[in-house]
Amino acid sequence: DLQQAEQLGVVGPGTLVMADNVLYPGAPRFLEYLDSSGRYQTQLLKAKYEYEQLWNPDWEPGKEDALSASVAVGSWE
Questions:
Q1: CB 71, CB 14: distance < 8 Å
Q2: What residues does 71 pair with on adjacent strands?
Q3: For a surface tag, which of 29, 41, 44, 71 has the fewest beta carbons within 10 Å of its beta carbon?
Q4: Tens digits of per-residue pLDDT, 32-74?
Q5: What is the pTM of this model?
């Protein structure tokens, strides 16, 4: 979705991009793109995974997660 927004010109220098649940359940390709594109300065903000899934036998209460806060930087020419 982020790459499509870039192609449409919706995202450019100064844009703030926020994403939730980037560590659990996880978004590794998204985080890799943010790091490798050279277009974003990203900070991970600690957060608890907020959905209680008592019905799920693999669910762990209090699982650590994060939000990613990224600012688009640099020239996009």
A1: yes
A2: 16, 41
A3: 29
A4: 999 999 999 999 999 877 676 778 888 776 778 899 999 999 8
A5: 0.78
How far from the centroid of its chain's Cα atoms is residue 3's Cα? 13
| The two structure tokens encoding residue 12 | 């450019």
Strand partners, 65: 47
DSSP 31: H
Can you tell me whether residue 54 is helix, strand or coil? coil
CA dist 22 and 35 (Å) reads 13
Please answer whether residues 73 and 52 qualify as being in contact, where contact means their C-beta atoms are separated by less than 8 angstroms: no
By the 8 A CB rule, do 24 and 39 touch?
A: no
